[in-house]
Design a protein that fits this description.
Elements lengths: L2 H11 L6 H13 L8 H7 L19 H17 L3 H14 L4 H13 L3 H14 L4 H13 L3 H9 L9 H13 L3 H12 L5 H13 L5 H9 L5 H19 L1
Helix pairs in contact: 1-2, 4-5, 5-6, 6-7, 6-8, 7-8, 8-9, 8-10, 9-10, 10-11, 10-12, 11-12, 12-13, 13-14
Length: 257
């Protein structure tokens, strides 16, 4: 084999940036030249032309989302999954967010609400209990757990959950409303009555008047004033209104006998 051709082949093996078509042309040229022919400086110059350097270097930067951005993105993906009817995907995405940030309490409450909504009560209860182990003073999480227990008629258990902390009443009316109701349903009217009175100091809600009147009736006290207040309220349902009317009618009849 011609030595020039061998030399040229090795040279081009070290210059992968040159076009293959040019390589084949120059090798063929070398093979046609006599073995004694010398390479000119111009030939070598053509072969050794350097390609221009790239204008800039490729830089790969890892982007780390902040906690807020990470949770917001998880929430958006859960919303998108729900919009597509993919309930399981939405729960999975929220679960991933909790695995990354166990103290993301709003995310925990949302996931528990979704589990509750599809009837997975044990999963929702465990999720909320795990959250309370991390944040015992979290009133909204306690309220959610108590509501779940109340839906199972576990009134004493719900009351115990709510009785462990005492958030500011003015900011947590729902909390104390459920606590009063669970106390009444658990047969603890001694606890329920002062709670209803405190709630009524903030607003004349019919349900609270009704709860107070029921406790008074249970204890053999005069419940008619509370029932009349309940009857005059605008927030009682039809079934409750009929019950109150019947009780007042029976009360009136008993008073005239």
């Amino acid at each position: 084999m011609v030595c020039h051709a061998r030399l040229l082949g090795l040279l081009f093996a070290l210059l992968p940036s040159l076009a293959s078509a040019q390589v084949e042309s120059d090798v063929a040229k070398a093979e046609r030249w006599p073995e004694t022919e010398e390479w000119s400086s111009e030939d070598w110059a053509d072969l050794m032309v350097e390609l221009p350097a790239p204008e800039g270097e490729l830089s790969i930067t890892e982007v780390t989302l902040s906690r807020a951005d990470w949770l917001a993105e998880a929430g958006r993906q859960a919303d998108a999954a729900l919009a597509a009817g993919d309930w399981a995907r939405a729960e999975y995405r929220l679960g991933q967010a909790l695995a990354e940030y166990p103290d993301a309490h709003d995310t925990r409450l949302r996931l528990a609400a979704m589990q509750f909504g599809r009837g997975a009560l044990d999963d929702a209860r465990a999720l909320l209990q795990q959250g309370l182990a991390l944040a015992p003073e979290h009133a909204d999480m306690r309220l959610a757990l108590a509501r779940l227990l109340a839906s199972q008629s576990r009134h004493a258990a719900a009351l115990r959950v709510l009785d462990e902390v005492s958030p500011l009443l003015a900011r947590h009316l729902d909390y104390y409303s459920l606590k009063a109701e669970m106390a009444r349903r658990s047969g603890n009217c001694a606890l329920a009555m002062p709670l209803y009175q405190r709630l009524l100091d903030t607003a004349g809600t019919g349900a609270w008047w009704l709860g107070l009147g029921l406790c008074q009736r249970e204890l053999g006290l005069d419940f008619a004033p509370a029932f009349r207040e309940a009857l005059a309220s605008a927030d009682l349902g039809n079934a409750s209104l009929r019950f109150v009317e019947q009780q007042l009618e029976q009360y009136g009849t008993a008073q005239t006998d």
